[in-house]
Amino acid sequence: MADGVLRYGGDYNPEQWPAEVWREDVALMRRARVNLVTVGVFAWSRLEPEPGRHTFDWLDQVLDLLHDNGIDVALATPTASPPPWFSLAHPDALPVTADGVRLHHGSRDTYCAAAPAYRAAARGIAAALAERYAHHPALALWHVHNEYGTTCHCAHTARAFRRWLADRHGDLDALNAAWATSFWSQHYTDWAQVDPPRATQYLANPGHLLDFRRFWSDTLLAAYTEQRDVLRAANPAIPVTTNYVLGDWVPVDHARWAAEVDLVAIDHYPDAVDGGAEEQTALAADLARGWARHGAGGDRTAPWLLMESAPNQIHAGGRMHAKEPGRMARHSLSHVARGSRGVMFFQWRAPAGGAERFHSALVPHAGPDSRVFREAVDLGATLQRLREVDAGTVDADVAIAWDAASGWALGHPGMPSPHPRHRDEVAAAHRALWRAGYGCDMVLPGDRIDTYTLLVLPALYLASDDTADWVGTYVHGGGHLLVTWLSGVADEHARVRLGGHPGALRDLLGVRVEEFHPLAAGQTVPLSGGGTGRLWTETVRLAGAQPTASYADGVLAGLPAVTRHRYGAGTAWYLSTRPDETTYQRLMTHAARAAGASPVCPDAPAGIEAVRRRGAGASWLFLLNHTDRPQRVPAAGIDLLTGATVDTQVHLPAGGVAVLRETGTAGVRPPPTAGAATGTLCRCCAPRPPRPCRNSCCAPGATTTPRP
Ligand code: GLA
User: Could you tell which of 38, 345, 356 is best to mutate to test the pocket of ligand 1, judged by most ligand atoms within 8 Å of the CB?
Assistant: First the structure.
């Protein structure tokens, strides 16, 4: 997709409407400056009403109409919803739940991704679409499937699982060792004995469950890549993607998928109201950027796109909360600030029928004479004014590690407490940094991290030896690290590392955890120096680290709760509990400052989200006022939304937004030679204000040695 254009639009379902509505649709799209729509996501039964008989005439007309009106198309393959005839003809391709129930047609996603008949039919419809539309002038992007995220436990799945396990482990001895099958008489002597983790009497084997999630992510990925290859072969110039759905239940390791898509695309629907929705939005966008960078081998400009979001609703507590005026735009611009190449919604027009008839839409049931559509028109104009920010990087001094497999492993019901969830701990760390105003990148174990001043590992439960080395090298070379409870406890097979927790990180943290003391929901423990811990506490023994806060009451009174340890040239913090939000923000700020990180906009009042993007020779400061009061923020530049010049202070109305093309020195990083004794800064220091190199590439104290 072309650079220099922020994409704007959403899922468009012309198959649900007569042709006269299509003409109104494109007129309204033009009014809102929509420039990309996703077509055909669930249109399989309208494209292939009988096996092999394709009815493309309506789609021809729609694509021509859109193109004639200057609107590009992300053409979907409709494989997330096979037609009724398919399910009738191939009952073996219907999915089976863990407790053996075969699901039936009647909703969507009723297929098993390991069933050969489904895979063949999916390739078939993708090939037919590619043959007809690969060179259509409206086509800007292929959108494969929709939100890969279903699972299945049928016989096809069992066969594929065994093949995958043989490939991963080599032989049954290795599998038995990895899964610790001597426990509860689970030792396998034949591959035929190994099944998907179906419903069983009591707790299932954690290694078995974890490998199944990995296998299923790979299975869904194979279903995606074979469609992608068909589409690419028809016209290699058209990028291909699929939209990621986020959630703990999703059996997809998005980071591993990122190298297989031409741009990462996410769907994001916050499920918290109030400030929680803004924090979730920022985290989702930072994750998407991290996945894109990871998939592109570390390229910080790798593209990603917000493919779906809700025009006017947050679902929380089992009901819909309408977004207040301006909130849709703020959420959208938070994504753009964090690198999204545009803003897309589910959905363009609200349908009269169907299961999601009450999901919000840019054109709601009330029609275009509505607040939501007027805001949609305004957002289109806003994105037009922001065209120049459609590239570049996002400033981040801090990195937070994310690991899908740790999330899956922590989901095992045999954990010491039901509360620990990787996603929650990542969100809590991100929230503490977000509230303190620090830019964050999300990284995967093994990613390049030498440009960050602080690395945070929130409940990174699984740590292979490579992951332990990755962290150790960073800290030893001068990096600052903050590790939270339940990180590094198990190896990559979910086997607990022995000798005291956290086995993989004990030495660098300078602590040895003897016992876990999980707390009850709602229970808190006071900490010395103020604040409380919740969810989890531990018996922490010092092995070189200094305590910086202790438990102030209860069985652990007087024992360390938070510690700091010098390791090589770096510093490693350990949090053995989840601090309350104020305390977490204070601790995180302290660690970030000590590491040399700077908030994006140090004097911004609380409730102002500040994000800085940089392109060639320019920087843009996004300021989003999430409060219900007017705010003043010290900054200077040209506000791209109003054209006004800001000399010293931006005045943001309640809920308002400004995007400044920065002038003066506010957003300009010092030239690379500033402060350098002999000229050239090493790679890890060059993009930052000069400071002593923290990494092993330079001699201690150096600021100038080029990386070898
Ligand atoms: C997802 C799906 C859409 C729609 C929305 C509604 O993002 O991709 O098809 O179901 O959720 O929330």
Answer: 356
Task: Supply the residue whose CA is at minimum distance from atom 4 of ligand 1.
Answer: 346
**What is the model's pLDDT at position 667?**
54
> What is the number of the ligand 1 atom nearest to the C-alpha of 269?
12
Note the pLDDT of residue 565.
98
Residue 20 catalytic? Answer: no
Residue 305 domain boundaries = 1-7+266-391
Report which ligand 1 atom has the smallest distance to the Cα of 243. 8
**347 CA distance to ligand 1 centroid (A)?**
8
Q: What is the pLDDT of residues 636-648, one digit of tens each?
A: 999 999 999 999 9
Gap between the terminal Cα atoms of the chain: 37
- Pairwise CA distance, residues 576 & 230, whole Å: 50
Pocket test for ligand 1, best of 16, 250, 268, 308 (most atoms within 8 A of CB): 308
Q: Which of 600, 681, 118 is nearest to 395 (CA)?
A: 600
97 and 169 share a domain?
yes
Q: Tell which one of 44, 107, 346, 360 to mutate to probe ligand 1, the residue whose CB is within 8 A of the most ligand atoms.
A: 346
Cβ contacts of 342 within 8 Å, gap of 6 or more: 5, 6, 7, 8, 9, 36, 305, 306, 336, 383
**Mind listing the pLDDT tens digit for each residue in 458-495?**
999 999 999 999 999 999 999 999 999 999 999 999 99
Q: Is the pLDDT of residue 293 over 70?
A: yes
| C-alpha 162 – ligand 1 centre gap (Å) | 32
238 and 333, same domain (yes or no): no
Distance CA 659, CA 195 (A): 54
Q: For residue 692, is pLDDT > 80? A: no
> What digits encode the pLDDT tens for the residues 98-157?
999 999 999 999 999 999 999 999 999 999 999 999 999 999 999 999 999 999 999 999
Q: Do 330 and 252 share a structural domain?
A: no
Q: CA 608 to CA 154: how far, in whole Å?
A: 50
State in Å: Cα 320 to ligand 1 middle. 14
What residues flank ligand 1, with Cβ below 6 Å?
146-147, 267, 269, 308, 346, 356, 359
In the residue annotation, 308 being an active-site residue is answered as: yes
Using the CB atoms, write b or e for 49-70: b if 16+ within 10 Å: eeeeebebeebeebbebbeeee
Full-model pTM: 0.94
Residue nearest to atom 10 of ligand 1 (CA): 356
For ligand 1, the distance from its centroid to the CA atom of residue 359, given in whole angstroms, is 9
- For residues 624 and 334, what is the distance between their CA atoms, to the nearest angstrom? 8
Q: Where are the alpha helices (DSSP H) in 544-649?
A: 581-595
Q: Which of 48, 279, 308, 538 is catalytic?
A: 308
Task: Determine, yes or no, domain membership for 90.
Answer: yes
Looking at the DSSP assignment, which residues form a beta bridge with residue 8? 343
Atom number, ligand 1, closest to the C-alpha of residue 147: 8
Q: What is the pLDDT of residues 372-389, one digit of tens each?
A: 999 999 999 999 999 999
Q: Which atom of ligand 1 is least distant from the CA of 310?
A: 12
pLDDT score recorded for residue 3: 66
Q: Is residue 646 part of a domain?
A: yes
Mean pLDDT of the residues in the chain: 93
Q: Is 699 a domain residue?
A: no
Domain boundary among 206, 241, 262: 262
Q: Do 633 and 525 lie in a common domain?
A: no
Q: What is the pLDDT of residues 60-73, one digit of tens each?
A: 999 999 999 999 99
Residues 147 and 279 in one domain: no
pLDDT digits (tens, 9 = 90+) for 166-208: 999 999 999 999 999 999 999 999 999 999 999 999 999 999 9
**Structure tokens that stand for 36 in this block:** 């990309």
